[in-house]
Write a structure and sequence with these properties.
Elements lengths: L7 E2 L10 E2 L6 H9 L4 H7 L5 H19 L1
Antiparallel strand pairs: 1-2
Length: about 70
């Protein structure tokens, strides 16, 4: 299972504790909002170059693992 500590960071001093990609101030929710709107992962990455492709994919994998575990 992917560890949240490798992908997601939450600190009360950064965006009031909103979960962000480690090393950035980009909220995880922003990636989900882009995908929900029909935008591609590449478009998200173009708009947020501080987020690596590996971080984005690891975050999506984590979400998948968490949802799969929840539904089982």
């Amino acid at each position: 299972m992917t560890s949240t500590s490798r992908v997601v960071h939450s600190d009360p001093d950064i965006l009031a504790g909103t979960p962000v990609f480690i090393g950035t101030r980009v909220p995880i929710k922003t990636l989900l909002d882009y995908l929900e709107a029909g935008d591609s992962l590449d478009e998200f990455l173009d708009h947020f170059p501080s987020v690596s492709r590996e971080q984005a994919i690891a975050t999506l994998e984590l979400a998948k693992e968490m949802l799969t575990a929840y539904c089982n």
